[in-house]
Amino acid sequence: MPERPVLALPDPVLQRRAVPTGAPDTALAADLVDTMRVSPGCVGLAAPQIGVSRRAFCVDVSGHPKGRVSHGLVVLFDPELVSAEGAEVKREGCMSVPDLTANVRRALRVVVRGTRPDGDEQVVEAEGFEARAFQHELDHLDGLLILDRVASLRDDVFRRRTYQPRRD
Predict the structure, then answer these.
(1) What's the topology of domain 12-86+109-147?
(2) Is the pLDDT of residue 168 over 60?
(3) 137 is catalytic
C-alpha cells in the first residue's frame, strides 16, 4: 500500500474524536505502517493523522534509541487504555505539529487492549518510551494533540530544533 500524506494543524480531522472501526481494516493498517516507516523519526501513527477518522493506530519504537523495551510493530483497531501507572513529564514531538515540541505528562506504564489486523485481541503491557508512544497515539484518536496536554503554552512548548551542518 502507498504511504499517505500526514495531516498537520489546523486540519479539523485532528481535533475530533475518531469513530470505532468495528472490524480490522487491513488496507488501513498497511497505509499506517507504510506511512510511519517512510517518516523519519516516527514511532507511531494514528488513522486521523492520515485523514481517516477511525480508531486505529500503529506503534513501533524498536528502531528508536529511546525504545529500550519494545513489543515491535503493534497495529491496533479500537484500542483502549486499560490501566496507567506513574507519571513523568518529558519532551515529545508530533508529525501533525511539525514545528514544535512540548513537555507532556504521561504515565510510565500502561496496559492497552485492542484488535489486531488479523481480528485477534491483543493486550500490550508497555513501559517507558513505548508507553509514551501508545498514549500519544491514543490521544490522536480522541482528537488531542501534544499542545492540548501541556501545562503552559509559554513554558512547555518549544520550536523544533533542526539539524544544521557545521560550516568550517
Answers:
(1) Peptide Deformylase (3.90.45)
(2) no
(3) yes
